[in-house]
């Protein structure tokens, strides 16, 4: 119950709260900081992020949340008329930020039947002479996928072959369920520059504190001084993030107990299992079990719901009739899916899933449902015959 309340109200552990109390008493937390961030805070981020590779404070730029970090790296790497490659489905802020700068978004496919792995052939086909960067979101929002070392290396091979740097959105780093392991893509890179975006928001449950960072991984100085100086220059636009949080950052990163992270992860993984089991009972839906992060994507077999033209109509009707809201897949450039969030209390999630099941049973076309069942039976029979023949 305690962990449920943590997720529902975003209460961080006492060590984190005490770090803020201590920061309030410091006169240095009240004035401006260097736009890149205080030296001690950047050193703390470098130490905390050592799993990503060899990092010093000079490789770290503090930002006002991870969204600001994303804006910084897009702005510094791409020019008007160029493009960046973004996964589909993927976090929608990339489109918002890039198109505002006259930068084109080109989408590469993720494969739902393969735990949302990257369609490597499609990724490479999207690259052209104007491609400025490849965005890799791992663990994924909205899919909850976690890529292993082998798959990350395959992505790096494509980036290396085409000489394109990577923007690594790793705000959900370490947010992985049992049986999976998080690997920073920068730790595997031999020659591909990687700009990693991270922050406190998700793992520490403090989104309102707006503390993020960019970490520059450029072992062979391919990006050169221009990108480093460009990030430093861009950081002056807002004069850096809150100095109150900056002064608390070293203590937050060092003293937050591992037990806090473990409890949060266990709660969300159990939530994912609960939602998956409940939604398997919903006719016309196909939940895809996540491997990490805070979300689950669910396929809507829209052909079985003839009264709805698309996922948006499906979701709108579900809100109206059952008071359950899910983000439609079109928000992630992926129609006929929807995303649910796993961080609500257990009883609320269970009831929401049960209402989704009721909604589906009330609206599914029974003739189409019968055809679906028949098709599944025939497929299972064929598979059984093949096994018996062997």
Automatic annotation (TrEMBL):
Matches recorded under InterPro entries: Aminotransferase_I/II_large (IPR004839), NHTrfase_class1_PyrdxlP-BS (IPR004838), TyrNic_aminoTrfase (IPR005958), Tyrosine_aminoTrfase (IPR005957)
Coiled-coil residue windows: none
GO molecular function, one term: L-tyrosine-2-oxoglutarate transaminase activity
Domain Aminotransferase class I/classII large: 9-356
Domain of life: Eukaryota
Essential cofactor(s): pyridoxal 5'-phosphate
Pfam families: Aminotran_1_2
Biochemical pathway: Amino-acid degradation; L-phenylalanine degradation; acetoacetate and fumarate from L-phenylalanine: step 2/6
EC number: 2.6.1.5
Catalytic activity: L-tyrosine + 2-oxoglutarate = 3-(4-hydroxyphenyl)pyruvate + L-glutamate
Keywords: Aminotransferase, Phenylalanine catabolism, Pyridoxal phosphate, Transferase, Tyrosine catabolism
Gene Ontology biological process terms from the UniProt entry: L-phenylalanine catabolic process; L-tyrosine catabolic process
KW Ribosomal protein (keyword) present: no
Keyword Iron tagged: no
Its biological purpose: Transaminase involved in tyrosine breakdown. Converts tyrosine to p-hydroxyphenylpyruvate.
Family, similarity comment: Belongs to the class-I pyridoxal-phosphate-dependent aminotransferase family.
Assembly and oligomerization: Homodimer.
PANTHER family noted in UniProt: TYROSINE AMINOTRANSFERASE
Protein name per UniProt: Tyrosine aminotransferase
Higher taxonomy: Eukaryota, Metazoa, Ecdysozoa, Arthropoda, Hexapoda
